[in-house]
Give the backbone structure.
Amino acid sequence: MALIVQKYGGTSVGSLDRIRNVASRIKKLRDAGHQVVAVVSAMSGVTNKLIAMAEELNNDPSERELDVLLATGEQQSIALVSMALHELDVDAVSVTGRQAGIVTTGSHTRGKIDQINPDLMHKYLDEGNVVICAGFQGVREDGMIHTLGRGGSDLSAIAVAAALKADTCQILTDVDGVYTCDPRVVKDARKMPEVSYDEMLEMASSGTKVMQSRSVEFAKKYGVIFEVRSSLNDNPGTIVTEEHDNMESVVIRGVSIERSQARLTITGIPDEPGMSASILSCLAEAEINIDMIISNIAHDGLARHSVTMHSNDLGKAQAALKPVIAKLGDKAGFETEAGIAKLSCVGIGMRSHSGVAAKMFEALGEAGINIGIITTSEIKIAVTIDEEQIEEAARVVHAAFDLDKAPQA
Ligand code: ADP
Ligand code: ASP
Ligand code: MG
């Protein structure tokens, strides 16, 4: 008998038929003698619909109330999955984040899991129940309902698996696993049998939305090995785990794309110590997530700082920076560029292979695709390009590294 934690995403519970499918998959595991905890997302589209309603009523809805509202999406689906299991004569109990003992910290709508007290889940499991746990939510120490950021059910599942010391953790979704690029964009993308935490983390944080990046960070920290697989078939998926020696033989593991990015460039900055700090801390205070950062000195001896962010944050960033710009002097100002996207190549093999950037830029150049900002890490090269060309760019780079052919380690 194994203790299996599964996570079913929005599309996997997106209709009553899909919920019946989830129930019958869980029943099979129960019939084979396993204990099951299923962490469930809201039915697909529900979270977006709730956000749209909130925004229709109020331009800037209270984040506390958003948490109260959004948590209802998962509450619907846990009860429905539980009822579908009862229909199959499987004992099942649903638990909300609070009942599952998920204690969170941080600002509303961006909660982090602090700890999980799984006593009630253990009790229900010991009594022979399947436990259906609401993803994406927890409760703060002050008793407030709290959500974990978009895609947060992945984090709930990994954290629940860690807290229960589960034997297996599976993320069930609408694709067969993690591919070398989004299979909706690159048709000949290949499923990877295995990927390291670091690669998955870099891919997730650069737009590969099959996993929420914070959930991968959590899995790495607590050593939770998990598998991404389909809720619609029994094909083996992708195992996300510690890196091992064979993995470095693959130079590029995958290509990620992230749309709806924007660039904000602050110009005319005096070239003095402390300037970058004042700009970035003001953006941090406004809770704007900055992605790429570059700085250079223009021919007039003044500095320019460019940062990228989600395009939704551009207005907020400009407003937050106004007072700082005023203090920087007459020559300071800013430029903005929306309609850009980010393309990233990720692979731990980059540590031991050179020439990756050259090959990537050559492929883009030959396809007539212009590159904006470039940043690198030990295992990633990322560039901004015009959003209209992002899909073509992904295909070109994917082909340049033979990702459609190369055997994956
Ligand atoms: P869920 O609702 O199950 O959480 P998501 O929509 O969050 O599912 O994630 C699954 C989607 O992620 C897939 O439908 C796919 O289009 C997208 N995706 C993006 N990049 C990749 C990739 N490299 N491999 C697999 N899926 C990817
Ligand atoms: N329902 C939430 C969302 O749509 C959480 C999740 O599905 O993981 O972001
Ligand atoms: Mg998801």
